[in-house]
Write a structure and sequence with these properties.
Elements: H1 2-5, H2 9-17, H3 27-40, H4 42-45, H5 80-89, H6 113-125, H7 129-141
Length: 142
């Protein structure tokens, strides 16, 4: 009789096995990333990740305005490793052509790798689910 009452135990243990896993981004990391973004990035890329006006049109000095990091921009098109390199090193080869002029500073001397990852986690967390799905598919195809 005891054996028939415990038939559900393996199923219960299997169901509970995934309960400790997080389904989304680390909330603390995203919050830290948001604070760093507001302090270091928002003045150029916008408080709502909207970028500067006419970000695709070169200014008289030949530089492009800061692009948006929201769903309207192209940030989500790039692998995280490339985004980390751009933030850390600035717009230099191989992420830009040799001699490319940009106002994008290198944050490697100011932010740790962990802080850069958290800023990018915050930016990524702001993309709508359909953009996140398109990004995942795009990166799978590369």
């Amino acid at each position: 009789m005891m054996a028939t009452k415990q038939w559900w135990l393996p199923a219960l243990l299997a169901a509970l096995a995934g309960c400790g896993e997080t389904a989304g981004p680390d909330t603390v990391a995203v919050m830290e990333g948001e604070a760093i973004y507001k302090a270091e990035c928002a003045s150029c890329h916008g408080a709502r990740l909207e970028g500067q006006a006419d970000w695709r049109t070169r200014r008289p000095d030949g530089k492009l305005p800061a692009p948006p990091h929201d769903a309207t921009g192209h940030t989500w098109h790039h692998p995280m490793e490339q985004l980390e390199a751009i933030v850390k090193l600035g717009m230099v080869p191989p992420n830009a052509p040799p001699g490319y002029a940009s106002d994008m500073p290198a944050f490697g001397g100011k932010l740790s790798d962990r802080q850069i990852e958290r800023v990018l986690a915050y930016i990524e967390s702001q993309w709508p689910p359909e953009i996140q799905a398109r990004r995942a598919e795009r990166l799978r195809q590369k």
